[in-house]
Design brief:
The structure is a single chain. The protein is mainly α. Helices cover about 50% and strands about 0% of the residues. It has a domain of about 90 residues. About 5% of the residues are buried.
């Protein structure tokens, strides 16, 4: 018997349908894992860059032996020098000029006097106000209460302090008034008292240090 009849239907004698020829294999449509990873990296390039900067900043806060380093902020008048000091003066001057234009263009009883830079305590108060303003006005993606908080906690209370320190110059109506110098040298007994205080409080736990 022919081989083709071996698989015929025994009742009808019909042959089964021949199998369809197999075509070429369908290509795997799933993306290559490496390509997916590369696309993910590219899409997050900006975020990764920011993360890298954050990690670098964190590493900069510690010495090679793992101890934390403390760096003064760039708006600390006690430590800032050179070009950064010049930029701080520029930022503060621009901030104060804007305050006078924005808040006191028609109210000369509260504006910040032009001699503000001659008064150290006023410079420090204004620097704190400027830092609070900067924090409230930058790096927010949506509205917050930070600006209202700046006015309520720093701006208006700070102006009251500044007014007290500039009162002599404002009342004189002749511009800046030099104050008589005061002897601010340390008390001669200060070093001895501090040494005794340190001796009375010896180290117990040196895990945390300044």
């Amino acid at each position: 018997m022919d081989e083709q009849y071996e698989h015929a239907d025994p009742v009808t004698g019909e042959l089964p349908e021949p199998p369809e020829p197999e075509g070429p294999e369908e290509p795997d449509e799933s993306p290559d894992p490496f390509d997916r990873l590369l696309g993910l990296v590219e899409s997050h390039d900006g975020a990764l860059g920011e993360l890298q900067e954050s990690v670098k900043w964190l590493l900069d806060q510690f010495t090679d032996d793992g101890e934390q380093k403390f760096k003064p902020v760039l708006w600390s008048w006690r430590y800032v020098t050179g070009e950064n000091r010049e930029k701080l003066w520029e930022h503060l001057s621009d901030y104060i000029a804007w305050i006078n234009r924005r808040y006191f263009s028609t109210d000369h009883s509260r504006y910040i006097l032009p001699c503000w830079y001659r008064h150290g305590v006023v410079v420090e108060e204004l620097t704190g106000m400027w830092a609070a303003w900067w924090e409230a006005m930058y790096n927010h993606r949506s509205p917050t209460s930070a600006y209202a908080d700046y006015h309520r906690r720093f701006f208006w209370p700070g102006l009251e302090v500044i007014d007290r320190h500039l009162k002599g110059c404002r009342d004189a109506r002749k511009g800046h008034q030099e104050m008589s110098p005061v002897d601010l040298s340390p008390d001669p007994d200060m070093e001895q008292i501090i040494a005794g205080d340190v001796a009375d409080h010896p180290d117990v736990d040196r895990t945390h240090t300044l």
